[in-house]
Amino acid sequence: MENMTDADEVGIDLSAPVVSRHSVAVTASAETVWRILTDIDAWTTWLPEIPYARVETPGPLAPGSVFRWSAAGMEIESTILQVRPQERLVWRGYGDGPDGVLGVHVWALTPAGDGVEVSTEESFAGPPVDADSASFQEGLDTTLAMWLSRLRRTAEAVSAP
């Protein structure tokens, strides 16, 4: 993997056939949201549609860290591309192998009011997406909105007095 500085922005593939962007205001600290988001092994506790998630690379998340997970019936292997603690997390991964769905996912946290604005965006490409981009678009839009809602509820419940 190429060497990147913190200033380099890594993003989704804007030319991909499926691109989705969503955001939500969360009344919790960036630290709380970041902890929940980056505890990949615990995703299954707040994202019931993910039956399995595990970080394969020892140590803290860093560019090059690999995690495996399952979602929407796909087995996914993802590699972290960028980590800016409490600000930005980017990964890319293949669902069902290199001939499957290539996803690039960005999570961004921005201080806002009494909490944080959490934005997420993802692009999908690959032969299965080319064959049925409308279904993949609908599924991704629904999934990202649901994940943001669940992340908000989980973070706010943890932060409640």
What does it look like?
InterPro entries: Polyketide_cyclase/dehydratase (IPR019587), START-like_dom_sf (IPR023393). By secondary structure, this protein is of the alpha+beta class. It has a domain at about 20-40 and about 80-160: 2-Layer Sandwich (Alpha-D-Glucose-1,6-Bisphosphate, Chain A, domain 4), CATH 3.30.530. Helices cover about 30% and strands about 40% of the residues. It contains four helices and seven strands. The protein has a seven-stranded antiparallel sheet with strand order 1-7-6-5-4-3-2. Helix 1 (about 30-40) packs across helix 4. The longest helix is centred in the C-terminal third of the chain and has 27 residues, at about 135-160. The chain is globular. The model is unreliable at about 1-5 (pLDDT under 50).
Helix tally equals: 4
CATH architecture title of the domain at 18-39 and 82-159: 2-Layer Sandwich
Number of strands: 7
Q: Quickly give the structural class.
A: alpha+beta
Largest sheet: 7 strands, antiparallel
Q: Quick one: CATH superfamily of the domain at 18-39 and 82-159?
A: START domain
Binned strand content: 35-45%
Q: Low-confidence parts lasting 5 or more residues at pLDDT below 50? A: 1-6
Helical residue percent band: 25-40%
CATH structural fold name of the domain at 18-39 and 82-159? Alpha-D-Glucose-1,6-Bisphosphate, Chain A, domain 4
Distance between the termini: 43 Å
For the record, the CATH class of the domain at 18-39 and 82-159 is: Alpha Beta
Q: What are the secondary-structure elements, in order, as H or E?
A: EHHEEEEEEHH
Rg calc = 15 Å
Q: Name the average pLDDT.
A: 93
Strand numbers in spatial order across the main sheet: 1-7-6-5-4-3-2
Shape: globular
